[in-house]
Amino acid sequence: MRTPFTGVGTALVTPFRKDGCIDEAAVRRLARRQIDAGVHFLSPCGTTGEAPTLSLAEKLRVIELVVEETAGRVPVLAGAGGYDTREIMTLARDIERIGADGILSVTPYYNKPTPEGLYQHYKAIAECTALPIILYNVPGRTGVNMDVATIVRLSGVPNIIGVKEASGNVIQMCEIYAAVPDDFILLSGDDPLTVAVMAIGGRGVISVASNAAPSEMVQIVELAEKGDYAGARRLHTWLLPFCQVNFVEANPIPVKAAMAAMGLIEEHYRLPLVPPSPAAREKIMRVLQNLKMLGAAARV
Q1: Among candidates 46, 32, 37, 50, which has minimal Cα distance to 7?
Q2: In a domain, 11, yes or no
């Protein structure tokens, strides 16, 4: 049985207009497209949403738009992570006030806290809100790995309910699954590892690829949920080139370029992110063409 924040959660991109402002109509349109495709929850204002370049007011507005558009049809897991615990506590309270269903909180980056610092950081956030919290471990971006012992310790905090694991270390994920309570949710943070993580006890993925291919990611995860790993592998193998090309340059540059080519958004980024290099764009377009992801069928 699926519970909230299991299955496919889309790490939504944040669409911008040419003038640099958030494209509010596109935020709503993308959320509707995800829901129509059967995605199980939405996760705005994370890494893929270019959260580090959004002001506090902008983050809250994007989350508010997604909450309004979902209208309770799917849960909203809003991003609230960073290196200043007090700031994240304030953001968490605001997210709760505007009606999101949970918080996805990346480990503090740059200041590289100790395991005890990570524990106290998340404990403080958990104590300031009634919302459920999913931890987010992505050492390749943050410079700090949240080890198994710390995750197990945090699993004892009542409203810390799971972890998005993007360490790429499947052994670590196996150890997490073996040590946490049965109801603690392990989610893949990497599209290419989704089927593997589910095979060892994971409950789904918070996905970049589902921005462009939501129904395909849903099919992969739902097949795995049913135990049809042969079927999940076939579709996963077909989609794998797209999952991989999304990281030919820093996320979300490639997926936004792909979505623009599909007619889903205008292709605008905020510095320090810039459009893909010509070589990267050629790789992205080649994958889209090979998978037949371009054309009117992909448009909203």
Answers
A1: 37
A2: yes
Domain membership of residue 73 (yes or no) is: yes
Q: Which residues are catalytic?
A: 136, 164
Rounded to 5 degrees, φ, ψ at 198 are: -65, -35
| Strand-by-strand arrangement of the 185-188 sheet | 41-43, 7-11, 204-207, 185-188, 160-165, 133-137, 102-106, 77-79
Residue 297 has pLDDT above 50, yes or no: no
The count of structural domains within the chain is 1
At residue 103, φ and ψ (nearest 5 deg) are -125, 135
Q: What is the pLDDT of residues 282-291, one digit of tens each?
A: 999 999 999 9
Tell whether 262 is covered by a domain: no
Beta pairing partners, 185: 162
DSSP structural state of residue 143: S
DSSP-derived letter for residue 249 is: S
| pLDDT tens for each residue of 131-162 | 999 999 999 999 999 999 999 999 999 999 99
DSSP string over 11-64 = E----B-TTSSB-HHHHHHHHHHHHHTT-SEEE-SSTTTTGGGS-HHHHHHHHH
At residue 299, the pLDDT reads 38
Domain of 194 in residue numbering reads as 7-226
**Average pLDDT, integer, range 11-26:** 97
CA distance 289 to 283: 10
Residue 93 lies in a domain: yes
Instruction: State the pTM of this model.
Output: 0.96
Instruction: Enumerate the H helices of 128-228 as residue ranges.
Output: 139-142, 148-154, 170-179, 194-199, 214-225
| Domain containing residue 51: CATH number | 3.20.20.70
